[in-house]
Amino acid sequence: MSTAPIPPVPPDWREANRKMWDERVPIHAGSDFYDLDSFRAGKDALRPFEVAEVGEVTGRTLLHLQCHIGLDTLSWARHGAAQVVGLDFSEPAVETARSLAGELGLGPERAAFVAADVYDAAQAVPDSSYDIVYTGVGALNWLPDIDRWAETAASLVAPGGFLYLAEFHPLTDCLDDATGSRIVHDYFSREAWVDETPGTYADFDAATVHNRSVEWQHPVGSVVSALAAAGLRIEFLHEHDASLFARFPVLKRGSDDFYRYPQDRPRIPLMYSLKATRPA
Question: CATH number for the domain including 178?
């Protein structure tokens, strides 16, 4: 494990990221990528492996950290969770999620949404603990301190409950963008990655103004160790050879809508998932 000192965090990281996400909420809500019309009609936003690994949620409470516009959160309610709570630092995202919940006939007693920083979740959410604390893909890279995240998330897991995380594999951030075959970046780097690219993954051509973003790479070992140090027991760590989007041009879309390397290419993990429980 790297013992290099942690580089300084850009002082505007939170505000820059918030402005970036606030601006992209209406773009995402109107995009084919999120396809809210299909979601309203009943399409499940969750990935099949998440549903299988989390298991039965009927009658359980679930907290979704960094929920964006709430599609995954509301999908867990559709799967039978007694109450879901989504938390995100973007006010427009939370407003959109609340609106969607209302359209689906899910009142705040079934689906509540809170606007707050994830590090402040313990003080912001309505209950002190939940049967399931869930974090979906594309979340951890926006946080500079993975230990603080783990402590916060673990504190919200009820005795006998668990945290479930699905995330893009950090190894993919080490590879060259053109081929996805050469290691060109340091896997253990703690440097902030500052980007100014306009548009968004849901619409690359969207005209945007707030383009500065600040991200971090967190090795899988750091995530697992942080959760264990926070008092949770790791039940499993699964690595997946598929991605939700064409992270590299060489990836091919399969019949299941996941993207993978061609059969003549060696595979690497593109995503991972883990479950960590709190003893009863």
Answer: 3.40.50.150
